[in-house]
Write a sequence for this structure.
């Protein structure tokens, strides 16, 4: 006789930037095992791959691959908090002496996606022409940022992939090739391309600031947690 099926609770949340509603369940022991194996490698790409697989299994999202990095991280924390608890425990090295480790506890409900002031997805290039940008798909963002020395081609390729629409007065261009997008970027002047760079530099991030007192020096350190690995405690 087969063993009974265990009931797994379901939850929902709204993604902080796109506003999309997602139904999800906590990850199971078999999925958590894959996550820990990825963590042991200390390689961010392996951790991202494990997280993506968990999101595919635990949510009703049709396309995890197109999810922006910051929303992927936010959604993963929601799933993790329901699976193993809303509190994450880990060690922080105090920056004032660079060696003292302090045990900290973090309420994952306090961690939010931060949208920097001045960040815009609509970029004016001239009086008539403006761009509407989209956030890079996770794989594209990781591939372009994990290389040791990204060259001009990497920068152009990522920027080209993120052009959603081009407006020229009343004319809207939303169907163009990657080469056409790269050529369009190549024809920009320095000030215009700087606006593209600023879009990436000010993209929303999953971040949280902790204040940690060094028990030896009594100095209060401000520690900024940012990126996927920082919240894996």
């Amino acid at each position: 006789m087969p063993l009974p099926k265990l009931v797994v609770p379901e939850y929902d949340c709204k993604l902080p930037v796109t506003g999309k509603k997602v139904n999800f369940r906590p990850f199971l022991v078999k999925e958590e095992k894959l996550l820990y194996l990825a963590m042991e490698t200390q390689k961010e790409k392996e951790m991202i791959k494990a997280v993506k697989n968990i999101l595919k299994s635990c949510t009703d999202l049709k396309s995890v691959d197109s999810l922006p990095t910051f929303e992927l991280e936010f959604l993963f924390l929601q799933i993790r908090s329901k699976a193993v608890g809303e509190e994450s425990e880990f060690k922080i090295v105090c920056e004032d002496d660079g060696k003292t480790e302090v045990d900290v506890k973090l309420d994952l409900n306090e961690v939010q996606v931060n949208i920097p002031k001045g960040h815009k997805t609509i970029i004016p290039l001239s009086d008539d022409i403006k761009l509407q940008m989209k956030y890079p798909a996770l794989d594209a963002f990781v591939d372009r940022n994990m290389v040791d020395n990204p060259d001009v081609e990497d920068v152009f390729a990522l920027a080209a992939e993120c052009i959603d629409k081009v407006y020229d007065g009343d004319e809207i261009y939303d169907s163009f090739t990657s080469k056409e997008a790269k050529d369009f970027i190549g024809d920009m002047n320095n000030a215009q391309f700087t606006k593209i760079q600023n879009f990436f530099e000010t993209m929303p991030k999953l971040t949280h600031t902790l204040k940690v007192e060094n028990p030896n020096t009594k100095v209060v350190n401000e520690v900024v947690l940012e990126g996927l690995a920082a919240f894996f405690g």
User: Anything to note?
Assistant: Residues 87 and 107 are 5 Å apart (CA to CA). The chain has seven helices and eleven strands. The mean pLDDT is 87.
